[in-house]
Amino acid sequence: MKAVARPSSGFSLLELLVAVALFAIASALAYGGLRAIVKAQEQ
Questions:
Q1: Rounded to the nearest 5°, which phi and psi values hold at 5?
Q2: Helix, strand or coil for residue 4?
Q3: Distance between terminal CA atoms of the chain?
Q4: Count of CA atoms in the C-beta half-sphere (13 A) of 27
């Protein structure tokens, strides 16, 4: 008999790492952009 692979529930560790990395990059870009806007308004 063939082993039937059951569908895994939830996310794998690799998927979570990719999601966290993308969130960190997006947060860094947003923070840099907002900081530049605030600095430009102060001048």
A1: -80, 120
A2: coil
A3: 74
A4: 6
Integer CA distances (angstroms), 4 to 16, 37, 41, in order: 25, 55, 61
pTM over 0.70: no
Tokens 């308004």 correspond to what residue?
41
The predicted pLDDT at position 40 comes to: 93
Domain limits, the chain: 12-43
> Which residue type, as a one-letter code, is found at position 40?
A
Torsion of CA 30, 32, 36, 42, to 10 degrees: 90
pLDDT attached to residue 4: 67
Contacting residues for 21 by C-beta, under 8 A, at least 6 apart = none
